Amino acid sequence: MIHTLPTRISGVEILRSQATGTSSKEASAWFSAISQQFGGPRRERVVCTRAGQLTAPSYYRLGGTDRTLRCLSGEMVVVVIDTRHDSPTFAQWHSFLLSSDNARGLWIPAGVAVGWQTVSPRAQLAFSQRLCQGRSQQGWLRWDDPQLAIGWPSIPQDLLEQPATALDLEEIANPDLPCLAQVRRTKVPQAKCSVWYPAAAIRRTLHRQEKTRTQIQFAKVQVDASRTPLQLPNELSNAPGVVGARQPGAAAGITSRATSAMEPTTAKDVILVIGSSGQLGHDLCRYLRQLGTVVGACRDPEKHGLLPVPTFVDISRPASIRTAIRKVRPKLIVNATGLTNVDRAEKDPRIAQLVNAAAPAIMAEEAREVGAGMIHFCTDMVFDGSGERPWNERDRPNPLNQYGRTKLLGTEAIRASGVPHLILRTGWLYSTHGENYVKSIVDLCTYRSSITLASDHFGSPTSTDWLARTLTELLSSGTNDLVGWLAQFGGLYHLSNLGFASRVEVGDQIIATCKQLTLPVVLQKFHSAKQAELPTPTPCPLNCRLDSSAIAVKFGMTLPRWQAELNLQIAKLLDSSILPAQSVA
Ligand SMILES: NC(=O)C1=CN([C@@H]2O[C@H](COP(=O)(O)OP(=O)(O)OC[C@H]3O[C@@H](n4cnc5c(N)ncnc54)[C@H](OP(=O)(O)O)[C@@H]3O)[C@@H](O)[C@H]2O)C=CC1
Ligand SMILES: Cc1cn([C@H]2C[C@H](O)[C@@H](COP(=O)(O)OP(=O)(O)O[C@H]3O[C@@H](C)C(=O)[C@@H](O)[C@H]3O)O2)c(=O)[nH]c1=O
User: Fold this and answer.
1) Which residue from 32, 107, 499, 527 has the least number of CB within 10 angstroms?
2) Which atom of ligand 2 lies at the shortest distance from residue 454's CA?
């Protein structure tokens, strides 16, 4: 019996069964359990892949065929993307870690694209697909669709099965766009031509002929949406160079992907994200792609994990910062760097000064040189933590430690530089990647029976996913002129998730969410202590509450409550099994 669990993508289900292991006997037991439960006849196969190999997402439409996957050996990250424009989770993607250990399978309904990347040296995937009567239309989604910004585990070493006809989600699913047709053209007469109408989900084969070994090219044709599908074939048949392309060459309005003519014609602004390996930098790279061409910069490309390969920068060396910026010549410099280890900053004030204070000042200088604007992130730790009132932008900073002091200097340098800028002062950041207190507590609570947290240290947990998305939304109104937008609307704003909590209350919320998501939690309760009683060497402010009302009012934003955002991010964390997979129900 296979048990099913719903996921965040409507209709996609996690499959759990008793069967584990890699033997072919168990693979066939799995296949027959799938047939029994989900019906047949089915096409079954076992696919072998190597580390880094990526199979681009594909989906089925007409005749709708469902698919199931399970990892027989090794580990792979499977990404599902909802391409059904009438679905409540349309355009959302979600990743799952499938491994031989967690014995997890996935059920993928028609209309949901699925692709995978292997993370272990080798892996085997059991793939079962219901055969349906008539033709079932398979399509491919670009694995690097910039709008989706899928967080694949790494830059693919090897790209399997992404045909040249792979489309962006917008092209596939938006019924409001003019119809897009895909045309296969060959150099021989009576070539096969497939026309596909995403809006109507109709596919036709115009001319059939015996197989030819002639090289096949692909072209995409944008047609007038007002034309009915039946009119289209004639038009295509008449288009020289497409059907029976005797004279290869571009027909009016028809362009080959190979010529890159489908790429946007207007040059996109370049956005340089410095610190792309950090928790916030990573999410900024994912979201800011919606606004321009993102170039990451960090000192360890291995930690960047996204495409394209980042530019090298060591921000403790001024020359390195200047070289990186002059090389990339961005319109926008986003500084997501920081020496964020508060104890390390206290012990090594010279490095803290270089990274948190001097580097932002140099970035601002260089931004002026190349005519760029700047985004920067400041911290709640610039305040002394007195009182209980949330700090607003007019309150006077008075940092207690080197981290706070150097961050304040960096912020002040940018403000004084005259460069158009937006500085977001935030606090208590966490993410589903990188090291942070949320991930640590989720991990620790499965095997530690006691953890002590401060009951008198208050702030707002804020997810980097939300912060990066919110910044992108803010900037999107200024994409025509990012620098001009910053000059007009920029400045310093406080921005964090809504509501305040002590560190203990945050811990309690994490445990409650983990239990709700059926993580086997061992920890029952946190021990509370005063911050001063904890073995932390660095003096830290107690009141880190930030008042984000100024930015919310100015831009009409609704801030999510920290609890709701935390629940969402923990669900993502557990679903994608960044934690040990066997601890997930
Ligand atoms: N974390 C938090 O709670 C808060 C953070 N902030 C601010 O937000 C920003 C992002 O924070 P967060 O994502 O949490 O930080 P992380 O510690 O996750 O990331 C910091 C980034 O800075 C990079 N970096 C540090 N030193 C150097 C160097 N010498 N050369 C090149 N890169 C370097 C790191 O690179 P590498 O990966 O190689 O180390 C990493 O990419 C920082 O400015 C921080 O001060 C503000 C408020 C709260
Ligand atoms: C990382 C970690 C934290 N904790 C506890 C300790 C502490 O009470 C709480 C928070 O830990 P942190 O290391 O995030 O604490 P801290 O360094 O105080 O966090 C600060 O970081 C800098 C960069 C900022 O700018 C601030 O806004 C703030 O987020 O969680 C654990 O119990 N286990 C862990 O593994």
Assistant:
1) 527
2) 8
Residue matched to tokens 């594909």: 58
Tell me, what's the pLDDT at 229? 33
For residue 114, give Cα distances in angstroms to 61, 95, 158, 251, 577: 13, 10, 17, 34, 17
CA 95/CA 458 separation, integer angstroms: 33
pLDDT in tens, 150-161: 877 777 766 766
303 in contact with ligand 1, CB cutoff 6 A:
yes
Task: Give the pLDDT confidence score for residue 431 in this predicted structure.
Answer: 95
Write out residues in the chain with pLDDT < 70, as ranges.
Answer: 19-23, 62-64, 133-137, 157-158, 160-165, 173-267, 304-308, 575-585
**Domains of the chain by range and CATH?**
3-162 (2.60.120.10), 254-434+462-499+546-560 (3.40.50.720)
- Which-ligand-closest: CA of 315? 1
Q: What is the pTM of this model?
A: 0.65
Altogether, the residues listed in the chain come to a count of 585
280 alpha carbon – ligand 1 mean position (Å)? 8
| Separation CA 464–CA 555 (nearest Å) | 19
Please report, as a single letter, which amino acid is at residue 87. S
State the ligand closest to the CA atom of 285: 1
DSSP codes of every residue in 476-514: HTTTT-HHHHHHHH-EEEE---BS-EEHHHHHHHHHHHH
Q: In this predicted structure, what is the pLDDT of residue 275? A: 97
SS3 351: helix
Give the three-state DSSP class for 198. coil
pLDDT for position 143:
87
pLDDT digits (tens, 9 = 90+) for 317-336: 999 999 999 999 999 999 99
From the CB of residue 557, how many other CB atoms can be counted at a distance below 10 Å? Answer: 15
Report the distance separating Cα 135 and Cα 61, nearest Å. Answer: 10
Mutate to test the pocket of ligand 2, among 280, 339, 341, 342 (most ligand atoms within 8 A of CB): 342
Do the beta carbons of residue 366 and residue 326 sit within 8 Å? yes
H/E stretch holding 338? none
pLDDT for the residue 63: 61
* DSSP assignment letter at 577: T
**Any ligand 2 atom below 6 A from CB of 505:** no
Q: Which of 145, 234, 141 is nearest to 195 (CA)?
A: 234
Q: Which ligand is nearest to the CA of 314?
A: 1
Select from 341, 423, 428, 437 the residue to mutate for testing ligand 2; criterion: most ligand atoms less than 8 Å from CB: 437
Q: Verify whether ligand 2 is closer than 6 Å to residue 571 (CB atom).
A: no
**Cα separation, 194 vs 276, whole angstroms:** 42
What is the four-CA torsion angle of 38, 43, 48, 54, rounded to 10 degrees? -80
Strands 293-298 and 270-274, bridge-based pairing: parallel
Place of tokens 């003096």: 539
Helices (H) and strands (E) in the chain, counts: 16, 30
ipTM: 0.96
